[in-house]
Write a structure and sequence with these properties.
With 225 residues, this protein is α+β, with helices and mostly antiparallel strands. Helix content is 28%, strand content 26%.
Length: 225
C-alpha cells in the first residue's frame, strides 16, 4: 500500500456501506479540498518519528466522554470491552476490541479471525491523572510494545479528546494504528452524538491506504532504546 492506491476487496462494494472503491477514493479527494463526508481535521498527524496524534471535539460534559472511553460492558455500542484497569501508575490494563459487535459488515479475509474473536491488548499504566489523562503501554500477541495516551480537556463548551500513540516501530505499524484509531474515533463520535453508526470495514482499507500515502516519504522510525 506504499503507493497509496486503494486496495481491492471482494465484490464491487466495500462492506455494507454502499460505497464503491472509486466512491471512497472520491470522498478522500473531497476531504483534501474541504468537501465531502471526511474532514481533514479528522486525520492523525505525525508529531515525530513513530508518534501519531488524533484530536476530536466531542459533546460534553467530560463525564460523558469518560463513560464512553472507560470501563464499559461487552455489548457497548463502540465494541470496546476491558477488564477494570488498576487505576494507578504501574497498574495493569486489558482491552478487547470485538469488531463483530460494532458492525454487520463482512470483514476482509485477512481480518476474519479478528472480527469474530476480537483483538486483545494488555499493558501497564504509565501516566494517570483522574478525569484528565491516562496513558498505558500497548501491544497484542507478537506486537512490539508502544504507548497510547488519552487526554480530555474542556474546550468551547465541548470536550477535546486527544489520542497520542507513541513508540511505533515502523511505518507499517503507524499506518495500521492510524487507520484503526481513525475508524474507532468516528464510532465514538457517533455514539456520543446519537448519529447513525458509520461503517467499519468499509472505511478501514481506504483509510489505511490514505495513511500509507501520507507516510510514504517519511523515514522509518528509529530503533527503540
Amino acid at each position: 500500500m506504499a503507493d497509496g492506491a486503494l486496495q481491492p476487496v471482494e465484490g464491487d462494494r466495500l462492506g455494507g456501506a454502499g460505497l464503491s472503491r472509486r466512491g471512497l477514493e472520491q470522498e478522500l479527494c473531497k476531504a483534501r479540498s474541504g468537501r465531502g463526508r471526511y474532514k481533514m481535521s479528522d486525520f492523525g498527524v505525525v508529531l515525530e518519528s513513530g508518534t501519531v496524534r488524533f484530536e476530536r471535539l466531542l459533546p460534553g460534559p467530560v463525564r460523558a466522554c469518560l463513560v464512553a472511553i472507560s470501563p464499559i460492558p461487552r455489548n457497548a455500542a463502540n465494541g470496546w470491552r476491558r477488564v477494570p484497569f488498576e487505576l494507578r501508575v504501574g497498574g495493569r490494563t486489558e482491552m478487547l476490541f470485538k469488531h463483530s459487535q460494532i458492525t454487520d459488515e463482512a470483514p476482509p479475509d485477512a481480518y476474519r479471525d479478528m472480527h469474530q474473536n476480537g483483538w486483545r491488548s494488555t499493558g501497564t499504566i504509565t501516566r494517570y491523572e483522574p478525569q484528565r489523562l491516562i496513558a498505558f503501554t500497548w501491544g497484542g500477541g507478537d506486537e512490539a510494545e508502544s504507548e497510547v495516551a488519552f487526554e480530555l480537556a474542556p474546550k468551547d463548551g465541548k470536550v477535546l479528546l486527544v489520542v497520542t500513540h507513541r513508540k511505533l516501530g515502523s511505518k507499517a505499524e503507524m499506518t495500521s494504528v492510524s487507520g484503526g484509531w481513525h475508524v474507532h474515533l468516528g464510532l465514538l463520535e457517533d455514539l456520543l452524538t446519537g448519529s447513525p453508526r458509520r461503517g467499519f470495514w468499509s472505511r478501514l482499507q481506504g483509510l489505511e491506504a490514505e495513511y500509507a500515502a501520507r507516510y510514504a516519504d517519511l523515514p522509518e522510525p528509529g530503533a527503540r532504546a
